[in-house]
Amino acid sequence: MNKFGVAVFAWFLLVSSAGAQTLDELHKLALKEGGVVNFYATLAQINAEKILPVFEKRFPGMKVNHVDATADKLAARAITEARGGRVISDVFQMALENVLQVGEQKLLVDRQMPEAAAYPAALKGPNWLAADLVIIIGSWNTNLVKKEDEPKQFEDFADPKWKGKLIAEARDVELLIALARHKFKNDEKAFDYLRKLAANNIEFHKGHSELAEFLTAGQAAACVTCYAHHYPPRIKKGAPLGYMQGEGIATITANALAKDAPHPNAALLFYRWSASEEGQKAYAAGGRLPPHPKVEPVEKIRPAILYPIGTEEIKEWKRYEKSWKEIFKLR
User: N or C terminus: fewer CB in 10 A for the chain?
Assistant: First the structure.
């Protein structure tokens, strides 16, 4: 067996036994590797500055080297490095579609850790686990929408009374996918809903922060596809806003282990900690929305019903995107 084969076999043994080790045992092994985790992640700095120090304090001597970039750039970088014969990343944390992209190149560890048992099937795969959620909901300006007219579900926006009063993000195909595959479980019903929505002359904008600002300023009565986490901070500052809490669409930011990682024990330590209740509480306190069923977000932004955009939904993305653009006449 050559050196490469020995390294791969050693990694296999390590991952195979990972579930039997405690986090404290992994910590000791990680320190022997140098105590470094190369963390390829889209985690915003404002959140990373609160979350990563919690990990480093919990496991003295550990240092997280946060490589921050957009998900597509991180995926491209990891693929390029691997093709060049040098794996630098230990752990990935980025949009699920990009994690799957890296996985297609056989660059992920195809095994789950024991912490995954607590998560619903839609929030995990054979080589990834949800680390964070971004929720798409409907929202409105309370000065422009009467209490009795507040939407309770996405279908409410199809009512003709909303004509000329709605805004949305042109790229949010997730709305169509979530309704077709989860709520209606029927493509035609979802397409019919979208046609009714299109008849209400939605005004599209680029950027969810911009949508929230337009709504706050009263430039629209309601937003069909907005990010839930944008609203509690604005409401606390007195903005006249409300948002749906009955149902929402969950887009997934996933964790995954890099195959042949330079610091395999450190990678396992961070991955398992971030998936545990302890780690998820740190994510919640740091301003993110934890997918762990037993961990509540700091703000009430997790709706009662969630429609997750998981692996199967992403596989169908292009097909639904085509219909989305055709119905709304988007280029």
Answer: C
CB count within 10 Å of CB 56 equals 14
Share of the chain above pLDDT 70, in %: 94
Q: Give the H/E segment covering residue 138.
A: strand 128-141
Place of tokens 């301003």: 287
Give the H/E segment covering residue 26. Answer: helix 23-32
Strand partners, 65: 38
Query: For residue 3, what pLDDT is reported?
Result: 40
In this predicted structure, what is the pLDDT of residue 20? 72
Cα distance from N-terminal residue to C-terminal residue, the chain: 54
User: What is the structure's pLDDT at 232?
Assistant: 93
The helix (H) or strand (E) run that includes residue 39 is: strand 36-41
| Contact (CB, 8 A) for 67 and 105 | no
Query: Is 65 found in the same domain as 168?
Result: no
Q: What predicted TM-score, i.e. pTM, was given to this entire model?
A: 0.87
Length of the chain in residues, anyone? 331
Residue 114's domain spans which residues?
3-130+253-285
- Distance in angstroms (rounded) separating the CA atoms of residues 136 and 248: 6
- Asked, for residue 293, whether it belongs to a domain, the answer is no
| Residues 158, 240 contacting (CB under 8 angstroms) | no
296 belongs to a structural domain: no
* Segments in 162-219 forming alpha helices (H): 174-178, 187-198, 208-216
Q: Compute the average pLDDT of residues 183-190.
A: 97
**Position 19 confidence tier, pLDDT thresholds 50, 70, 90:** low
Q: How many domains is the chain partitioned into structurally?
A: 2
Distance of alpha carbon 197 from alpha carbon 201, whole angstroms: 7
Kindly state the tokens that stand for 200.
Answer: 């209400």
CATH number at residue 61: 3.40.190.10
User: Can you count the helices (H) and strands (E) in the chain?
Assistant: 13, 11
Predicted confidence (pLDDT) at residue 10 exceeds the cutoff of 60:
no
Q: What is the pLDDT of residue 18?
A: 54
Structure tokens at 68: 């921050």
Judge whether 113 and 269 are in contact, CB under 8 Å: no
Classify 37 as helix, strand or coil.
strand
